[in-house]
Amino acid sequence: MDSEILERLEILHTSGQISEQDKDRTIKAINYLENKLKIKVEKEMGGMFATHLAKALSRIACNEAIEESSEEAEVAVREHPEILREAEILFEDTLGIKDVPKGEINFIAMYMNLLLNS
Predict the structure, then answer these.
(1) Superkingdom of the source (predicted)?
(2) What is the 3-state secondary structure (H, E, C) of the chain?
């Protein structure tokens, strides 16, 4: 994880957009992706992933999670079901969050796929 991603997460936290827990969970998720799945989370795409994951975690904590997926996310998970499963594992096992709405999981899976192919 590059320093710009950490800086981005700190800005989100200090501006009140995400909690300390959301920031820590996002860092934990990035470490999991990089170490376990060998997905590099860096540059602009990595920053977008980190921001979207942190905001998703915040929405989930506030019971404001996105329930439905965009067409783009639906296509990504349909074409890469293995990435969808990894996103589910990320939320459930790595972050300890159960019953994450489909919209949030699919969106993060789409970003994971983009990171794999960037």
Answers:
(1) Bacteria
(2) CCHHHHHHHHHHHHCCCCCHHHHHHHHHHHHHHHHCCCCCCCHHHHHHHHHHHHHHHHHHHCCCCCCCCCHHHHHHHHHCHHHHHHHHHHHHHHCCCCCCCHHHHHHHHHHHHHHHCC
Q: Break the chain into its structural domains and give their ranges.
A: 3-116
- Whether the model clears a pTM of 0.90, i.e. scores above it, the answer is yes
**What's the rounded Cα separation, in Å, for the pair 20 and 100?**
20
Angle (nearest 5°) at CA 66 between 20 and 43: 55
